[in-house]
Design a protein that fits this description.
By secondary structure, the protein is an alpha/beta fold. It contains seven helices and twelve strands. A hairpin with a 7-residue loop joins β10 and β11.
């Protein structure tokens, strides 16, 4: 069945029961950690209705492969400082498309409000008088913890979770964590290839060299990998493929290197996902897109 591009949602009804298409607006949509089945129902419906989908570079191929062919799909991501479209250009593009009457989905890996630039984008949309809505997604920390079978707040080991990004000027900000309680789980987003520096920063913050940690790459996708190590040995880790995430704390001791090495997505695609995947040129006979 060919994708018609017809708008099926968002919609509403007037008092007489007549279906009326909602006006154009911008949706900041969380793509989740990678598995299309972890998209929320609302995110899925918005993506099927969007005229234009502006996605980050770290949105997984699995999700890109089930986006409707009737939408204009544009990669506006930047990785490792590579030159590309600027944030101000993305903001202007969203405003311009909405003013043209388009339904725009700004698709972000994980949750839009964690370590993305959703704050800047919302400010630009507000200033331009553009209607927008934020649709939460499963953040990468939770996807990675599930993949490694770690309880971030196991009451026997951790009563506090700190989310921090390694992708910022001046390090991670872990120096502010001195003298905190030992029962803390640290989740470090976007470690890149900074594992030697992170090992030093963690120890300088008073986190013991023997504390276990785990590096999860491409969580919830068929290329997911998990590496278990310690703070002291973190510098010996090979930088995995992006997106990756580092979990540090005593709870990381429960992770298993075997948990998801080379794992494939565990569940079959549901019919509504499969109906779009079938249309994609890279769909293969096994019922999955060929992502290798």
């Amino acid at each position: 069945m060919a994708w018609s591009g017809a708008k099926r949602w968002p919609w509403t009804q007037d008092d007489g029961g007549v279906v009326i298409e909602m006006p154009a607006k911008v949706y900041l949509v969380g793509a989740g950690p990678g598995d299309p089945e972890l998209l929320t129902r609302k995110a899925w419906r918005v993506l099927q209705s969007a005229d234009v989908i502006l996605h980050d570079d770290l949105v997984s191929e699995e999700i890109l492969h089930v986006l409707p062919l009737g939408s204009q799909i544009v990669n506006v991501g930047k990785r490792c400082g590579a030159k590309g479209i600027s944030q101000s250009e993305i903001n202007a593009w969203m405003v311009s498309l909405a003013r043209e009457g388009k339904i725009v989905a700004r698709l972000k890996s994980g949750d839009p409000l964690l370590f993305g630039r959703a704050g800047e984008e919302m400010e630009a949309l507000r200033s331009a008088g553009i209607d927008f809505e934020v649709i939460p997604g499963v953040t990468s920390a939770l996807g990675a913890a599930a993949a490694a079978r770690i309880s971030l707040t196991d009451r026997r080991h951790a009563s506090r979770v700190v989310f921090v990004t390694a992708h910022r000027a001046g390090g991670t900000g872990l120096t502010n964590e001195r003298h905190v309680a030992a029962d803390t789980t640290y989740v470090i987003y976007m470690p890149g290839n900074r594992y030697a520096e992170l090992s030093e920063e963690l120890q300088a913050a008073g986190i013991g060299a023997e504390i276990p940690c785990v590096v999860i790459s491409r969580a919830t996708t068929r290329r997911e990998t998990i590496q278990c190590t310690t703070v002291a040995e973190l510098e010996q880790c090979d930088a995995p493929g992006a997106p990756s995430l580092l979990i540090v704390g005593s709870i990381a001791a429960s992770a298993s290197d075997e948990a998801a090495q080379g794992a494939e997505l565990s569940a079959e695609l549901h019919p509504e996902l499969l109906s779009l995947a079938l249309q994609h040129p890279s769909y293969d006979s096994r019922g999955r897109n060929d992502l290798e």
